[in-house]
Amino acid sequence: MDTTTAHHRTAPEDRIPIVQRFVYGIGAFVNNLLGAASGGMMIVLNLGFGMDPGLVGLLGALPRLTDAFTDPVMGYVSDNTRSRWGRRRPYIFVGAILTAILFVVLWRLPAGQSEMWYFWYFLIGSIVFFVAYTMYATPWVALGYELTPDYNERTRVMGTQNFIGQLAFTVSPWFLLIMNSGKFFRNEAGEPDQVAGAFGLAVVIGLVTIALGILPAIFLRERMAAVAVAEMDAQRPGFAESMKSFFAGFKTTLSSGPFLKLCATAFLVFNGFMLVASYQYYVIIYYVMGGDEVAGAKWAGMAGTVGAVANFAIVAGMAWLGTRIGKRKALLLSISLSILGFLLKWVCYRPEAPWMVIIPAPLISFGLGGLFTLVPSMIADVCDVDELQTHERREGMYGSIFWWMVKLGLSAALALSGYVLNATGFLVELGPDQTERTILLMRLTDIGIPVFTSALALWAVARFPITEEVANDVRRRLEARRGKA
Asked: Is the pTM of this model over 0.85?
């Protein structure tokens, strides 16, 4: 967007009170906590149960492939639900409770079973868990898109929710140390045990999910519910028409060029980041700390926490910058700084100075900090363009497909990380005696993969067409046609 374009002033009725923004952000905290835990805790399957890294990668990937079906279905169901509590809130409330219970059950792994027994238990349990997770997350995401119709207020809302959501990432880097240390959770004999630590941590996460996850359902309202109901009343589809409408809506969503550019950006940035999010633990443990798991987990936790704390300032800065120079330019800047952070790993990951692993962390955080502050706001703008063209509100469908792309990136990252680790020649039984070639390949892939994917994402962002001027024009035309929401 041209920086000389005059910015409009957000109308009072379009502003979201800080308390409501905070409550929506609590949903982001729960969403991020579950996402970080479901991926980050899986290292226990390798280090605690001795499962092959390739199988662990498959366990990260296969359950999320089912999201290709469940996410759009949940988005469609949420868009077309009519109840006294709204389209989104009932699913958020029930989904939070079911997700918490299933997560605890998932990590109740008995000792003494075979590798394939653990594989199938975790695979089936994960599929069921992610169905419940979708029931919570998809309506929560859609609710955020409809909280305000204002171009800049959307960025402020998403900045607030991402700011609060980052609290989860100040905790999650310490999950491995918590599970290993024995200070919090021990086995039945009273001894430190990584497997017992994983179950204890799952119980805590489940309780937090229930306590906080239901709050958006209780305290937030659905601004576009009346518009959506009017659209449904005009159509009144039967079952056959509903199925036809679902597939038509799915096709329309995927035919949106601006939306696909945002999906590609999220897939590439998130995929690259998550592929090395757990992978870098191995680099820190076996290169920087010479095979010391506890010391490596400590420094990895320090780096993660520094990055997460920095993300608070990054999210606030990106939200502010997005309202000044435009969302697209702000996102380009954040991804570029993230690339610089990944490159710094080559000089900052040093055995003689382990504290230096924290230096690249703040710059790396710019990637996801900008992504999840600016892109959701940009998707809300896409939803307005879609309504102008189709006379339908499909926040649920857009949100579900977007987050499926994010989760697809996560599943690809988890699947590939195990095979990439195997390809370097890493063998867990060698402990600190990994070969020099293995260590070199681990370092190169830890840096090169996210740099490459983020560079591709820059190309996609640069071609996003919806500016502030375009978005405001779309809103004026919508309100002239169907009135204000």
From this structure: no
